[in-house]
Amino acid sequence: MLRQEIAASYQELSEEVEHGAEHPEPVEEGEVDDDQEDTSSAILPVLDSESAVFLVYQTITDFREKLKHPVMSVSYKEVPLYDAPGIALYPGKAQLLSCKHHYYDHIPPLINPGQPGEIECTTQRINYTDPFTNQTMKHALIVQGPRDVKKRELVFLQFHLNETDQDFSAINYLLFSSFQEFLNSPDKGEFMKDCESSYSSWKFSGGFRTWIKMSLVKTKEDGSETVEFKQETSVVNYIDQRHKPASDQLFFVVFEWKDPFIQKVQDIVTANPWNMIALLCGIFLALFKAADFAKLSVKWMIKIRKRHLKRRSQAMNHIS
Predict the structure, then answer these.
(1) β-strands 208-221, 261-268 pairing
(2) Higher-confidence residue: 289 or 200?
(3) What is the full DSSP assignment across the chain?
């Protein structure tokens, strides 16, 4: 309906212009200014329409880019107790001498180092095939990790290796998120194979006390959540005063939570479809207003043209 009115108005204006061209008359000085004003009024709606179309295109393009590139959000959740992690150790020929839970970062002095002591930790041994070769049999010692981060609980383990044919002695280990999940698993061998495929492994060396402070990072991406451990390690040399062979080694390792905060990382899509819809509605409203303004401008130009022709006709009749 709006297009028909504008077309009719332009048609009427064109007929009057053609009529004026067939009967040319002298142009006064004021007439030039009227023509320039009419041209400016006609160009303004066109510029408004082009701006609106550009804004629509830019809005849709920005929305698609935000969908393709979500923003990474990092938050921290404080917990009084952690779910006890699982500590999988691969001691090889080394023997577990003692394992104890201590609190408030206090470890009492060693008594009879190198001799079997108390094992107060919950442990379990498991054998499974290597997930990468499916041929080598792996022997793991699973230990329940610390839970109470407020009391600064730690787990202190001591190993002894009597002899080795290697130049460097170390024990491999890996951390997984829940010791209870390991206990509840119907197939613990498959569970450990999955853990070894998903988590990184580390080492601690003989002749040192290695203090490991753990922190937990949970990453949520594409609807799935992954768990990762970060570690801060400090190593202190152990002064061994025993009379022993050169190949005899002691290993000391401490596991403790660094702080009570779990880091959560997730991707957030900042593109809001409702904001885009509201913006498009505003643009289309402005476009409608520009079209309405164009219709009024055409009517105004026709009115001014008629008034001008009427004055000119009166002037010619007066001269006649």
Answers:
(1) parallel
(2) 200
(3) -HHHHHHHHHHHHHHHHHHHHHS--PPPHHHHHHHHHHHHHHHHHHHHHHHHHHHHHHHHHHHHHHHHSPEEEEEEEE-SBPPPPEEEEE-TT-EEEEEEEE-TT--PPPSSTTS---B-S-EEEEEEE-TTTSSSEEEEEEEE---BTTTT-EEEEEEEE---SSSS-EEEEEEES-HHHHHH-S-HHHHHHHHHHHS-EEEEETTEEEEEEEEEEEEEETTEEEEEEEEEEEEEE----S---TT-EEEEEEEEES-SEEEEEEEE----HHHHHHHHHHHHHHHHHHHHHHHHHHHHHHHHHHHHHHHHHHHHHHH-
* CB contact set of 269 (below 8 Å; sequence gap of 6+): 66, 67, 70, 71
Share of the chain above pLDDT 70, in %: 70
Share of the chain above pLDDT 90, in %: 31
Q: 22-49: per-residue pLDDT in tens?
A: 444 444 444 444 444 455 555 655 666 6
What pLDDT is recorded for position 10?
47
Pair 286, 45: CB distance under 8 Å: no
Q: What is the pLDDT of residues 210-223, one digit of tens each?
A: 999 999 998 887 77
Whether 272 shows a pLDDT value over 80: the answer reads: no
